[in-house]
Amino acid sequence: MKSPFVAFLALLLFSISACQSSRNTVKLSSEEKSKIKDFQSLIPKKDSLYHVLIATSKGDMMVKLYNETPVHRDNFIQKVKEGYYDSLEFHRVINDFMIQGGRPNPTPDGSPQPYSKELIPAEFRTDQHIYHRRGALAAARTNNPEKASSSTQFYIVQRKPYTLPQLEEHAEERELTLNDFQKELYTSIGGTPHLDGAYTVYGELENGFDVLDKIASTTTDEKDQPTTAIRMKMYLLNQPKQLK
After folding, report:
1. What pLDDT does 112 receive?
2. Res 203 pLDDT > 60
3. Which CATH number do you get for residue 77?
């Protein structure tokens, strides 16, 4: 049996390594360390999925990343570790639809930064019941024929449940064929069925749906950009043992 000291040391090293994995060069504040610890406590001990904390000026959210979409998962983790998303805005927000981020900040003179030209091959996994449910974390993309994803831009689905008549009308308008699982999903949890098979879903929100709704309901301009900037900072919370 491990001594109390050994157990304490193991827990301390886990917390430090998780913090360091998400910030190799920036020292974390005591408030950040406390926040990370609080969210780490929500992750089951033997969980096999990566989890990321998305701290925003409207509150905090935690997402889990699917192992069924390893290319998107690993790309997102790498961006989080590099601190790529830190200080970026949710630049496109549409209430009852989704919130989108990952666009580079403008230069000091206000000029737009160039977007990354790096694309990621699509990973559609509807066979694993990975759909655009409410809270789905998915990759934005250009209108390219391969439906390849942006390496940086992401969105989180916010739409609340349809009634069955609403869903049937939506499916007819969009010429969608929905299976029984999708019908149950979109009438009980919510989401955006017309995006299934068109954009890659690679994770989902586990905590912070109230924050998602708060961001989605913010005041926006004619370009769907919040009139008051909503910024983010991300932290990798864990490292599943079998994926090390």
Report:
1. 66
2. yes
3. 2.40.100.10
